Amino acid sequence: MDARTLTAVATRQSDEQVSRQERKQRTRQALLDAALRLLKDRTFAGLSLREVAKDAGIVPTAFYRHFESMDDLGIALVERAMRSLRTMIREARQNPATYDDAIRSSVHTLHTHVRANEAHFRFLTRERYGGTGPVQAAITTELRLFASELAIDLGRFEGLSEWSAEDLRMMADLIVTAMLGIVMELVDVRTADPDADEEIAAKARKQLRLIVLGVAGWSS
Amino acid sequence: MDARTLTAVATRQSDEQVSRQERKQRTRQALLDAALRLLKDRTFAGLSLREVAKDAGIVPTAFYRHFESMDDLGIALVERAMRSLRTMIREARQNPATYDDAIRSSVHTLHTHVRANEAHFRFLTRERYGGTGPVQAAITTELRLFASELAIDLGRFEGLSEWSAEDLRMMADLIVTAMLGIVMELVDVRTADPDADEEIAAKARKQLRLIVLGVAGWSS
DNA sequence: CATTACAGTGAACAACTGTGCACTGACAAG
DNA sequence: CTTGTCAGTGCACAGTTGTTCACTGTAATG
Fold first, then answer.
1. Which residues between 36 and 95 in chain B have a beta carbon less than 8 angstroms from any beta carbon of chain A?
2. Cα–Cα distance between B147 and A181 in angstroms, integer?
3. Is A209 on the interface with B (CB under 8 A)?
4. With an 8 Å Cβ cutoff, are B214 and A211 in contact?
5. In this predicted model, what pLDDT tens digit does every residue of B42-64 receive, in sequence order?
6. Does some domain include residue B3?
């Protein structure tokens, strides 16, 4: 079952009666999908233009009709993956219950979203730390922004309303880092073992609880 | 100022009167150094055998006299970098004072060691998350072991003596992940700004304090 | 002093890379 | 119906890659 064939067929079968620019956007998607697929066991840096093009079912030179360079493609991939992340956080945000409820549901939505969009999250965590160049820069920026938003959200909880912006940011960074670690563990699990998943989720809950408990005794 | 020339000269000037195997080990070192040097702005995956060989001042084929493959070289690099880390932790371990003292001195030694061995720590953090294949596997294993040792150390502190092994491990993982995040920030700072360094160190202390404070309220 | 072991050499290879160029054919606009 | 736009093609190129092979000079061994 060749991925290339799949893409080609999928494209062709719905090629009838579609506008020209729509078809262009479809191959663009095919390129992004191909890249994401190949990234399963490779770093972005070790990904070649020709390979991606071939896997998307087009000739290497046609690649340039959609992206200026591989870095360009990479940045588009970052945006796409961050949209996944933002969708998730929006879902997690809408229940401003107690600490314990927040932890429980947050970890649950995290787990669910990671499993549903494994490739995106694998890409994000890998390139966040391991990458170089424009792609890593883009992720760093986006994640910084993300932590800022989390810091604001944290400020709304009881016991945190009087924290300084700096301290809130510190706590947000800690949470983001810890949860990225959890995401890494989730996407790096070789076999899809539900028990292992639950174990990791339990660890995530405990880590968050430990952090939150620290809030009670905090003095800046 | 070519690194290749530097290495070659440095080798030659002390070539006189050294045993054969000693000289071999010296070029082996040159290879490791070259790799580490090139890794400053590249992923290990994007590092070519020829490049490393050239930078070490030998011809590509001579590389095989020292390493079976690039992955082999990578694993040797992991061992070398982990020795750095272990040296550090041994130094940090020898003062079993109060929590606050432990945090202060730990962050201090961390900061010092990272600045003294930037290349090693950059390599470790990058490949830990970003890598693939044998190199990442080696780092993961070593770091897991490292966290286990930390968990044991933690068990000796007051308030933690009755924690379950699992909970201690959870806490150790959280600390390791958080500190690796700090290390990442340290080695990714573009310019060597002492103020930025102190800011990061302060954040590290606060994060550790927040975690430690959580211990007081913990109930498994 | 003669012989062996072996770190390092240099040429050659097949495979792969990114990118330039002239092209084709189908769709959209006039 | 004619014409221009443009996604995708195919060839070509100059580099770089890992690895092979037969080799050279010299330090270590007997």
1. 41-43, 45-46
2. 14
3. yes
4. yes
5. 999 999 999 999 999 999 999 99
6. no
